[in-house]
Every structure is written in structure tokens, then in C-alpha cells.
Design brief:
Elements lengths: L2 H9 L7 H28 L4 H10 L16 H14 L1 H20 L2 H13 L4 E4 L15 E5 L2 E12 L6 E7 L12 E7 L5 E3 L13 E12 L8 H36 L1 E2 L2 E2 L4 H30 L3 H30 L10 H13 L4 H12 L7
Parallel strand pairs: 1-4
Antiparallel strand pairs: 2-3, 3-7, 4-5, 6-7, 8-9
Helix pairs in contact: 2-4, 4-5, 4-7, 5-6, 5-7, 7-8, 7-9, 7-10, 8-9, 9-10, 9-11
Bound molecules: flavin-adenine dinucleotide.
Length: about 400
């Protein structure tokens, strides 16, 4: 950890929501309850992309939230976390729509040329353009350095060959940022030699395959990609390179944590409502001490996760650099999403058999929580980042 970061870390030992952030929290909480909650079960059940929810987010102008004012954003990671938390509390998939827009936005903001930023960021910020991000291949997920997709230089651009899996949003997206090995470093071990290419929808040889049938995150499709001699013009090689983008993703990890916090809070909301209604042994289930203590523990864990996520977001907003933020952001992602899984599991337990029935919403919280522990770097990988920091080693891939 560099000296400068220690200063920022010391200064930002807590956070306080300012007026703008409270306004965003209030607005999204209201919209989530009034216009999103009623759709959540149906989106999960049908596994259909929720175009109506995308239109709602667009109408509210939320796509640019964490990004600089020049793109119409609030420039606040904490505000973005608040929005994800409130949507995630009622509907995992609607919150996901924001995040899948923010991943390519963040990558281009960090690593794009000025021309690429001018061409793509305004559209992503307004919702007129949609993007996706693809590194994962059949033989390599966590170990990005193992990708086999290759790009070779040709006159005026590059030819890409390879195949990807689990590319979320790809059958909706106008373009996909595709990671491919390219250049002198491509044959060497490690992630050096990887570049990102902007592959536009409809490019000959570029095919999006059939969507995965998932247990969670069902409303936003994840698909395989096939690239057969795909030509990408010179101006679609992402200027800043792969490492810059990966470092920038450290700063966005609190966003995944925020989805965990929202999911956990939503699971508590459902559990509280149920145990107050349900009766056993002549009394309300909520009166049993064993149940009350479970609810207390679920609330303690969620509040702890919330504080960790908000603090990590406040550090981003205070200017700690993405690379330096890595361990704190990893802690926020790992703890909040493990908490989401634990709390959702306990919430299902409190429903008894009703928790297993598709009639109640709580089972989708359980299924969606599992996804959060795996995406954007599994929680084992987050623990590696934290352990490397504790032990004073360079963060590993
Ligand atoms: C719903 C969903 C959406 C996704 N969307 C995208 C997307 O849009 N774009 C994209 O590129 N990818 C996407 N992915 C893929 C995701 O990024 C990978 O699944 C993830 O990185 C893990 O890779 P893997 O599944 O190949 O697991 P593996 O890397 O094969 O890991 C298997 C197990 O080994 C553990 N493991 C691996 N390495 C280590 C280590 N060094 N130390 C300890 N444990 C380790 C893992 O934590 C895991 O438990 C998505 C996945 C899902 C489920």
C-alpha cells in the first residue's frame, strides 16, 4: 500500500451521506417500492430481459451515477452504491441492469482513447447504447491469463479468433469489450499481452450464442460468444490496455458489495413480514427467542456489511487510487456478498417449507445471493487479494 493511500484511509475512517446522496437514496427507494418490486418475481420466473425496467432507469437518468459530471453523472461511488442497494433490496435483476451498464462504461473511462470516450460514453450514460464485457472462456475464468482468444494485426485493424462464455448482456449489447491475447507478450505466462477490443454488434464472424439457463440473475442474459476471423478496426483497440481497466475495477467492487447489502436487507424485509404473520404452538413465530436472535444476527451482519461497503465507496470518492483500494474493495465485496448468502439462507429457514415454494419471493433471494459470491472475482479470489495485502505481497491475478 502506498503512503498516499494510508493518508486517505486515515482521513476517511467513516462516511456521512450528504444531501444529494440522501435524495438519490430516497428517490430510488420510492421508485423501487412503487414501480419495481411488483415486477421482480415475474422477471425471475420468465427469465426475460426486463426492457421496461431498463426504460425506467433510463428515464430516471441513473446510468451515469458513479461517473464524472461531464457525462451527466453525480461522480459519486457512494451514490451509486445507494442506488444499487435500494433496487437490489426488491429486485436483483433491475439492480443488475445498472451494473452491466457500468462495467463497460468504467472500462472505457479508464482505458479508452479520447475518441472512444467521446464516441461511446455519452450513449452509455444516457442508456442509448448498451455494452458488455467479456474475459471468461471455458478453460479460464479466475485465471484470466489462460484465455486463448487471439488477435492478429492486419491492414487497418485486427482479426480475432476464439470463443467466450458467460458474457452478460451480450445479446442485448450494441458492442462487447472482448479480451484477447495480442502482441509480443501474448505467448508469455501472466495476463500481460491481453488487450481489449470493441466488437460491434453485427460484425461478420461475431456470433452471440444461446443464453445460459441460470438459477439466479435470470433476468439479464449471459451467453457464449463465438469469434471467427472477426475484423476489428484500429480505432476499436481499447487505448489504455487491460491492466489499467483491471485496476479500475478495484474501485468498482463496492458496487457488488452494495448489491449484497440490498439483497440481505430485502431478505430480512420478507422474513420479518412472514414471521410476524405466521403462528406456531399458539403464538406468533416472531415471539420465539430462537427466531428473534436469528433476525438480530441477520441485521447485525447486514449493518456491518453496509458500513464496510459505504466506507470503501467513500474511499473511492475521496480519491484513493484504484490499485491502492484493492484490499478494502475486496473486503467490501467479499463480506457483503457472503453476508447476503448467509442472510438469505437464514431467511429461507424462517419461512419453513414456504421458503422452498415458488409461491414466495424469498427463494429468489437465496438463488441470486449465490451468484454474487461468484461474479466479478470469486470470493476466494477476493480473499487472495486481502491476504496478499496483509502479507505485504503484490496483488496476484
Ligand atoms: C451470472 C454470471 C454472470 C457472469 N458474467 C460475466 C461477464 O459478463 N463477463 C465475463 O467475462 N465473465 C462473466 N462471468 C464469469 C465469471 O467471471 C467467472 O465465473 C468467475 O470469474 C469464476 O471463473 P470460473 O467460473 O471459471 O471458475 P474457476 O476460475 O474455474 O474457479 C473454480 C473454483 O476454484 C476457485 N479458485 C480459482 N482460482 C483460485 C485461487 N487462486 N485461489 C483459491 N480459489 C480459487 C474459484 O473461486 C472457484 O470456487 C459470469 C458468471 C456468472 C455466474
Amino acid at each position: 500500500m502506498k503512503e498516499g493511500t494510508k493518508e486517505v484511509m486515515k482521513e476517511v475512517t467513516s462516511y456521512a451521506l450528504n444531501d444529494d446522496q440522501r435524495q438519490i437514496q430516497d428517490l430510488v427507494r420510492r421508485v423501487a417500492r412503487e414501480r419495481v418490486a411488483a415486477r421482480a418475481d415475474e422477471i425471475d420466473r420468465s427469465a426475460e430481459y426486463p426492457h421496461d425496467m431498463f426504460a425506467l432507469l433510463k428515464e430516471l437518468g441513473l446510468f451515469s451515477l458513479p461517473f464524472p459530471e461531464q457525462y451527466g453523472g453525480a461522480g459519486s461511488m457512494l451514490s451509486a452504491c445507494l442506488a444499487l442497494e435500494e433496487f437490489g433490496r426488491v429486485c436483483y435483476n433491475t439492480a443488475y441492469l445498472l451494473l452491466v451498464q457500468w462495467v463497460p462504461f468504467g472500462a472505457i473511462l479508464a482505458g479508452g482513447t479520447e475518441e472512444q470516450k467521446a464516441r461511446l460514453l455519452p450513449g452509455l450514460a444516457s442508456g442509448d447504447l448498451r455494452g458488455a464485457f467479456s474475459t471468461t472462456e471455458a478453460q479460464s475464468g479466475s485465471d484470466v491469463s489462460g484465455i486463448r482468444t487471439r488477435a492478429v494485426k492486419v491492414d487497418g485493424g485486427y482479426r480475432i479468433n476464439g470463443a467466450k462464455i458467460w458474457c452478460t448482456n451480450s445479446d442485448i449489447a450494441d458492442f462487447v469489450l472482448v479480451a484477447a491475447k495480442y502482441g509480443d507478450e501474448a505467448g508469455k505466462p501472466g495476463s500481460s499481452g491481453i488487450s481489449l477490443f470493441i466488437v460491434e454488434k453485427g460484425t461478420p464472424g461475431f456470433v452471440v450464442g444461446r443464453k445460459e439457463d441460470k438459477i439466479g440473475a435470470r433476468g439479464v442474459p449471459s451467453c457464449p460468444l463465438f469469434l471467427d476471423d472477426v475484423f476489428v478496426p484500429d480505432h476499436n483497440l481499447l487505448g489504455g490496455g487491460f491492466k489499467v481497466v483491471m485496476e479500475a475495477f478495484n474501485a468498482s467492487r463496492p458496487l457488488i458489495g452494495a448489491r449484497g447489502v440490498g439483497l440481505a436487507q430485502g431478505a430480512i424485509d420478507h422474513a420479518v413480514e412472514y414471521v410476524k404473520e405466521r403462528k406456531a404452538f399458539g403464538q406468533q413465530v416472531s415471539d420465539f427467542q430462537g427466531v428473534r436472535w436469528m433476525l438480530a444476527d441477520m441485521t447485525i451482519q447486514t449493518e456491518a456489511a453496509r458500513n464496510l461497503v459505504y466506507r470503501a465507496a467513500a474511499l473511492v470518492d475521496a480519491g484513493a487510487s484504484p490499485a491502492e483500494l484493492a484490499p478494502m474493495a475486496a473486503m467490501a465485496k467479499c463480506f457483503a456478498t457472503d453476508t447476503a448468502m448467509k442472510v438469505a439462507t437464514d431467511a429461507v429457514q424462517l419461512f419453513g417449507a414456504a421458503g422452498i415454494s415458488a409461491e414466495y419471493s424469498i427463494n429468489r433471494y437465496f438463488r441470486d445471493a449465490k451468484v454474487l459470491q461468484i461474479i466479478e472475482g470469486t470470493n476466494q479470489i477476493q480473499r487472495n487479494i486481502i491476504a496478499n495485502s496483509v502479507l505485504g505481497r503484490q496483488a496476484r491475478k
